[in-house]
Amino acid sequence: MYAKEFEASLKAVEAARAENIAYEPRRMTAQEKEDLLAAYHPDYKKNEFTTLRIGPNKGEQVPHELAEMLEAHSRISASDVDLSAPKYDVDVLIIGGGGAGSSAAIEAHEAGANVMIVTKLRIGDANTMMAEGGIQAADKPNDSPAIHFLDAFGGGHFAAKRELLSKLVCDAPEAIQWLNELGVEFDKTADGTMVTTHGGGTSRKRMHAAKDYSGAEIMRTLRDEVLNRGIPVIDFTSAIELILDENGKAAGAVLMNMETKELMIAKAKTVIIATGGAGRMHYQGFPTSNHYGATADGLVLGYRVGAKLLYADTLQYHPTGAAYPQQIFGALVTEKVRSLGAKLVNRDGKVFMHPLETRDVSAASIIRECSDRDEGVDTGTGKAVWLDTPMIEAIGGEGTIEKRIPAMMRMFASYGIDIRKEPILVYPTLHYQNGGLDINVDGQTTNVENLYVAGEAVGGIHGRNRLMGNSLLDIIVFGRSAGKNAAAKAKEVTIGALTLDHIAKFDAERAAAGIETDAVSPKLLPNYTNQPSI
Amino acid sequence: MEKMVNIYLFGKQYQVPDNLTIMCAMEYAGYQLVRGCGCRNGFCGACATIYRIKGERELKTCLACQTKVEEGMYVATLPFFPLVKQVYDIESVKPTEQIMMQLYPEIYACVGCNACTKACTQSLDVMQYIAYAQRGEYDKCAEESFDCVMCGVCSSRCPAGISHPQVAMLARRLNGKYLAPKTEHLENRVKEIKDGTFNDLIEALMGKPVEELKELYNNREIEK
């Protein structure tokens, strides 16, 4: 049910629908993609980036908002806490209670380690919970890990660290099996064959799903397993500073109760950063599909103790964020909508691109349609294009939407839009942090010993763009791996005296660089108070 | 100028624009949320909310991030509800009726009032999925409860003290692990990888110069 001002455009979309369903748009050439990205992708807007003046990536470009956090003051000074009286003393400390942290916890526990999760909100308040479309794995006879590798490597602009990507694709089928044996439900046919679809940039149908609650189904199962195992989950508690030992190795974290602000020390033989993404940094003023706590905390924690970042200048803007109604502005409209046959259509009802180009290309193409080409629909708060969802019912038969993407149907139904009968308006939304902390294939940071990273806080697995379904995969593969390796490493670690000397050292570096700032980090939560809307 | 409405957050009156969700309205009023806010997108169940419109009898429930404010709305959030979650070993349980009797016997005390279904923020037939669980029909329970976000509102309204979301969670895991058909192609592929079937292929890719990989990528065949 759209307001009157959309009527003319809606009619054009409806009138062209039958023809648009039959129409097979060609894919762009490599050169066309390159030119499009350079002209329209937000990562290529030079004035939105700045050069880091201090820290391990000094001299490199990152978004302004991230630079402010990376160069900011700690929330504490060393004298605010007593390192000799840790409240928690564990083998493996996991910071973050999403899919990566939970997978790591389960595997560390399985390996016999004394493991603990701290999370600033609740376990499961994470981008994992919101991943809708699916998880990739090359497990069909016409597919192979090598084909999966090529799809992801090319989709990421040939920038991924090959050893990480190779692990991702080779461990993928086993990751699906592990989840399935934990009781995660997947869409299957009666004989057990996985129902798989394409994602943008895949050359085989290898997207496994649980309707459009894929991440939620995985996350709630992992959470249930963490609780079954009795792994301590310290919720509403953030890590605000890492602790090193006198030898410069990671040895714990300073924790803060999010409600009472009480500070506590957690001592650990190994630490896993699994803090997730950064959508709530709202880079370039974009809305986001991310959960409330996605504020790049792990990058800040790691950076301050000297861990290197990789590709921190590249973000993923999901091509189809909801653009209307305003209440769900920026919310994710899963790529699966396009996997199931819906095409992107402009104001005049014209299909302007192949619906399954990679995400960066699709986002740039939509931005072009809404800017220079002036073919966008005016939503009242900006421009958008149509995603013609009724095509799905026409192609897959009546009932396909309710069966395959019930969450999407529900989200729009709340605002009186029946996506089975009416198309929806979309525009890119800040979705994923391609870059992050630099790790080796064991999951340990390349330059701080005993500090591991897993999940969205890692950089380099996907290169400079990520394919749909490779993120749910990476949190499982690298989460499990980090848990196992951190547990094994903990067995041989003897912790030296704890210190927070790095805070003063970083302060001195900042002062020497002449940086004046009142900012403190990590950000922990965005501030939306007293704003008309977000 | 946008239209303003009066809402009552925990009884206190605020004027907020009428196009906001309850969650954004709380922030508009000045709340910095820590609890009761997770994904902001209808998936995590953190923002279970109970409200009553002034002058009306009916108590309504919703997710604060998915619901627009209305004039005269009295809002109480339910950021935590003490659900009972029983622990079990997924490897040793069996998908029989006994497991529910052991872990969640209170489901057999359901009085059929249907308050859970009326309260569900996802419009699920909660009482029906509990009935399936009672009968050990875990596949049906799993399907019926699939869209559950575990916000706990159903349990807050239940006179029998049932923790519906946890019952459904167990049913889904039993279904996913034991009852749903096994996937042969998955098992085969895992074995092939363990046997090193793809090692040469992968190693060849690992060693190729980028220009060659670009060529391969740009000319790869895409399944229809």
Tally of DSSP β-strands of chain A: 23
What distance separates the N and C termini of chain A?
Answer: 23 Å
Domain module tally of chain B: 3
- Gyration radius of chain B, to the nearest Å? 25 Å
Instruction: Characterize the overall form of chain A.
Output: globular
CATH topology of the largest domain in chain A: FAD/NAD(P)-binding domain
Strand fraction of chain B equals 5-15%
Mean pLDDT rating of chain A:
97
Spatial arrangement of strands, main beta sheet of chain B: 2-1-5-3-4
So what's the CATH class of the largest domain in chain A? Alpha Beta
Summing up helix and strand content along with how strands pair, one would put the structural category of chain B as: alpha+beta
Helix content of chain B: 25-40%
User: What is the average per-residue confidence, as pLDDT of chain B, rounded to a whole number?
Assistant: 96
Which percent bin holds the helix content of chain A? 25-40%
Give the CATH H-level superfamily of the largest domain in chain A: FAD/NAD(P)-binding domain
How large is the radius of gyration of chain A? 23 Å
Features:
heterodimer, A: 534 residues, alpha/beta, Flavocytochrome C3, Chain A, domain 1, FAD/NAD(P)-binding domain, 2 domains, 17 helices, 32% helix, B: 224 residues, alpha+beta, Ubiquitin-like (UB roll), 3 domains, five-stranded mixed beta sheet, 10 helices, 5 strands
Fold and architecture overview:
The complex is a heterodimer of chains A (534) and B (224). The mean pLDDT of chain A is 97. Chain A has 17 helices and 23 strands. Chain A is 32% helix and 18% strand. Chain A is an alpha/beta fold and 534 residues long. Chain A has 2 domains: 4-40 and 316-430, Succinate dehydrogenase/fumarate reductase flavoprotein, catalytic domain (Flavocytochrome C3, Chain A, domain 1, Alpha-Beta Complex); 73-314 and 434-501, FAD/NAD(P)-binding domain (3-Layer(bba) Sandwich), CATH 3.50.50. Chain A is globular, with a radius of gyration of 23 Å. Chain A has helices at 7-22, 30-40, 64-70, 99-110, 127-130, 145-155, 162-170, 172-182, 214-228, 297-304, 336-339, 359-370, 390-396, 400-404, 406-413, 470-490, 501-512, and strands spanning 49-51, 61-63, 73-74, 88-95, 115-118, 135-136, 196-197, 207-208, 233-234, 237-245, 250-257, 263-273, 309-310, 315-322, 344-345, 377-378, 383-387, 424-433, 436-438, 451-453, 458-459, 498-499, 520-521. In chain A, helix 4 links the parallel strand 4 (88-95) and strand 5. By secondary structure, chain B is of the alpha+beta class. Chain B has 3 domains: 4-77, Ubiquitin-like (UB roll); 97-179, no CATH class; 184-218, no CATH class. Chain B is built from 10 helices and 5 strands, in the order E-E-H-E-E-E-H-H-H-H-H-H-H-H-H. Chain B has helices spanning 22-28, 97-103, 115-119, 126-134, 138-144, 153-156, 164-179, 184-194, 199-207, 210-218, and strands at 4-9, 12-17, 48-53, 60-63, 73-77. Chain B has a 5-stranded mixed beta sheet with strand order 2-1-5-3-4, with helices on one face. In chain B, helix 4 packs antiparallel against helix 5 (138-144), helix 4 (126-134) crosses helix 7 and helix 5 (138-144) packs across helix 7 (164-179). Chain B is flat and about 70 Å long. The mean pLDDT of chain B is 96. Chains A and B meet through helix 6, helix 7, helix 8, helix 9 and helix 15 of A and helix 1, helix 7, helix 8, helix 9 and helix 10 of B.
